[in-house]
Amino acid sequence: MSYVGLSLALLLALAAGFALTILLMPGRRECNVIECLSLAPFFGFGMVSLLLWIAGFALSGVFLKLVVTLTLAVVILAAWRVGKKRQCLFIWSRPRSVLEWLICLVMLVELGAIVDLSLGRSLGWDSSFNWEIKARIAFLNDGIIPQRYYLSPSQTATHPEYPLFVPFAQLWLDLGMHRINQFWEKIPLLIWNCSGVVLVALLVGRLSGRRWLGAVAAVLLFFVPYAACGAGGMTSGYVDFPLGIVYLAAVGYLLLYISTGDLASFSLYAAALALLPWIKREGVVLWLLAAICGALTLYRSRGDRRRWLALVPGLLIIIAWNVYLAGVGAGAPHDFMAANLTTLSEHIGRVGPICRSVLRELCCQDRWSILWLGLALAFAQQISQRRDAVLLISTITTLVPLGLYGCAYLFSAWPDYLAHIHDSLPRLLLQITPLALLVIVSTAGCGGGRGAGLGCVGAVSTGEARPSRSH
Amino acid sequence: MSLPFIRAAEPLPHNIACHNIDGRGSRYANPPTKLVIQPGGSRALLLRLMWLGAGLAFVLLSAEKIKPKLHFSAIRNRGEFASTDSYLAPLTGVSNPSARLLKILDRLPQDKSVVLVVPDDGPRSAFIEQNVAYLSWPREVIWLCANVKQPEQALFNLRPSSLAAVIFWEVTPFARLKQGIRVGATQVIVPLAAPVPAQ
């Protein structure tokens, strides 16, 4: 019975995510099934977790489950009707050459390895005691996290201030199974990781204009040692990699929008953007950067003013979550002090050691191989060839987080802030890894032509690489 | 089979090629098009060679780091407490430690606290405390170090009516609390409150 419940809960969340993806692509008749399938787990579980949280203010137990199920069913029905009205065509994009088939085969082997390694290991520390514990507490309390949890001194180490995307996705499966199971609770994370790999292939392929390059990027992802086997990597059940994928989706679809003016890409950017602060606390930083890029794009294009609304859902989530935390009396994060000028002036002496630690981490071959050297080379090539909106966006979204995450340790409350850096910086870097790989592979694959590289599709709309200038 | 990077370096009539962004030709209603300026010349060739070398170095270096960490195993459902068991089994030396602990804790009143007596306040003790706090919910866990002065007195200074149980973890139970239930090699739970009826 529990397997039936688990399967139904999983299918419903994924189907709703698939449906939402279709609804988010207004006017697009042709839907790429692989694209919808790879976005569905993020949007589906995003919707489920938000619904469980919001409906949980008024309902609990069976009624909570019923309302969430009905809402998901309504989304699926709406997408079905819209699809029928739009006469949607679902397309499977198959590999077209021997090279593409070969790379895709390697990618499939890689996905198989991720599945085996993930399910062969138990949930990692953060995954158990930051995420799964909240799912357990909510399950034992009819689907709601009681205020007592936020006030409990023995639960302060479980980061009560973290948002509920992961715990409530796990809770949804628990509610389906009618029991808590730490093994099956790893399933959403596994699905996010696998669909993340596919999404990397898809977005890099589109942005570089070469599908085989996309597949190469997805394959290379597994060759980042920390991403593949690290303590916070894809197989450990941590959420930093999925967060990085959603960040990649936000930035990637924004770049596609800049390149093609495709409204569907902009909607998908908006949806991914809204999800960022709901996944993890650091998502707020990534949201801010992706939102700045979106705002710059909208300001520059001076298009439809309603598109500015894309920035609202994420902002609402940030505000609502903080109001909620204040309402339940949750304490401030214990690992960081208040970011103010007094603390900054007290800790200004940390700047040198922090810079050295960050550099040491970026050069750590055991965790990153030569990934960050590759990123530096990619930027050097991009800067020498083009200075346009695409370069600006890739710089803001890839390099600025590195600086911001480094600066965050100025406010570290750990007695040994260098130990704090050593402990958490690799996970923060993992959040930028998919995007870094996109920049590297796109730049490398497009060669040294003017206007080539990441977002070479952007050359059309930005008008910076006209045919006459290439000779 | 010609490799794409070699093909792209060949001289083209106008050095320009037009692609659909998905490479799917005319199947789009409004095909979004892009201009790719095919690189040519020795500079581009050098760049391609550089990236090829960097890519190979990346893969070879990474493979060396990843290979020792790849331990494939048959996928099997490790049960309801797959994760906490994997943490607690090496500490307790018994199988199904989470279920064993819960079996005792579930009978205790939920509005009372559990005292965990551990050897010190080091990271290992913090690790144990986190596991016990996970399993004890909704009971609060009070962490008591055995290496402080008069730990027994510190325990009895707590209001006894507010306590559900005392867990001695790698610490010999205090003289006055010998009637405990052993859950592992060095783990003993001493219930202090009367068991509540099963729901």
- The percent range for helix content of chain B is 25-40%
Structural class of chain A: mainly alpha
In this structure, how is the largest beta sheet of chain A organized? 2 strands, parallel
Pattern of helices and strands of chain B: HEEHHHEHEHEEE
Descriptive notes:
- The complex is a heterodimer of chains A (471) and B (199).
- Chain A is 70% helix and 1% strand.
- Chain A has 471 residues and is mostly helical.
- A two-stranded parallel ribbon of chain A has the order 1-2.
- The model of chain A is unreliable at 457-471 (pLDDT under 50).
- Chain B is an alpha/beta fold and 199 residues long.
- Chain B has helices at residues 4-9, 41-66, 82-92, 97-105, 123-136, 151-157, and strands at 16-20, 33-37, 113-118, 141-145, 163-169, 181-184, 187-191.
- In chain B, the strands form 2 sheets. Chain B has a 5-stranded mixed sheet with strand order 4-3-5-7-6, sandwiched between helices. A two-stranded antiparallel ribbon of chain B has the order 1-2.
- Chain B is elongated, with a radius of gyration of 32 Å.
- The model of chain B is unreliable at 1-37 (pLDDT under 50).
- Chains A and B meet through helix 4, helix 5, helix 9, helix 10 and helix 11 of A and helix 1, strand 2, helix 2, helix 3 and helix 5 of B.
